[in-house]
Amino acid sequence: MPPSIAVIVTDADRRILWVNEDFSEITGYTLMDVVGKKPGKVLQGPDSEKGAIRRIRKGLDAQIPLKEEITNYRKNGEAYCCRLVIHPIFNEDNVLTNFIAFEVDGDETDDSDLPLLQLKNKYQSSSLKGKEAARLFSALQQLMEEERLYRDPKLNLRQLSDRLKTNTKYLSQVVNLHGGGNLQSFLNSYRIEEAKQKLIQRQFGNLTLYGIAMQCGFKNKSTFYKVFKQLTGKTPLEFVRHRREQER
Predict the structure, then answer these.
(1) pTM over 0.85
(2) How confident is the model over 158-206, as pLDDT tens digits?
């Protein structure tokens, strides 16, 4: 069985645009957990070697390929040895546009037979097919976070593709690839996050559970309950009781 190879694509400012499934498998973080953040802020911890951190920063600042080994941390707090290679990506005008990193869990495998971790093997542009998709998905997330379009229960793929100046087929593919499901599941994840916040805020105490659900974009009570349980493992009432017990 081939080893898991985490792939991270960042913008030129080193903020994460996209990660693959192997990244989530190795670290425990999903794309939603890390998008917009810098890899070091997410993965480095108290025992991450300062010398390695300095060398990584120096290579990034110099915009040159680099290879390093460092102690990283999974989402559950567990430390692991990370072997990584980072390549800068330039456009046709030789302007830096992205960084792409390949990482393996050094506690599980070595990199002797992993060509992606050999600096002498240049990363071909054909392998960056996910870069544009990552940019589109990032723009979609920005629309959700800034304009809260998910609150519209009638929001559809056509409306979003028009806003993002793309086509419905491509947007659907991007949502499936980076969001891990269809458009409705993507929108519902935002709706549930907002519902969770409103359920525990006293200013919304006069609203029924369904009243809060409608404010967040749900048009069906049973769908709200079903999705809430799927994403949180609790019913809305169980969630509220649990949070109140934690606050005591």
Answers:
(1) no
(2) 999 999 999 898 898 888 877 778 899 999 999 999 999 999 888 888 8
Rounded Cα distance between 14 and 34, Å, is: 12
Number of H helices, E strands in the chain: 11, 5
What are the E-state strand segments in 92-210? 96-105
DSSP at 152:
-
Cβ atoms 96, 73 nearer than 8 A: no
Report the greatest alpha carbon distance in the chain: 63
The answer to whether residues 224 and 210 touch, using CB atoms and an 8 Å cutoff, is yes
Sign of CA dihedral 150, 175, 160, 37: positive
Give CA–CA dist 223/233, Å, rounded: 15
Q: How far is CA 93 from the centre of its chain?
A: 29
Please tell me the distance from the alpha carbon of residue 218 to that of residue 223, in angstroms, as a whole number: 8
The one-character DSSP state at 66 is E
- Is residue 109 predicted with pLDDT exceeding 50? yes
Strand, helix or coil for residue 59? helix
Map out the domains of the chain with their CATH numbers: 6-118 (3.30.450.20), 133-247 (1.10.10.60)
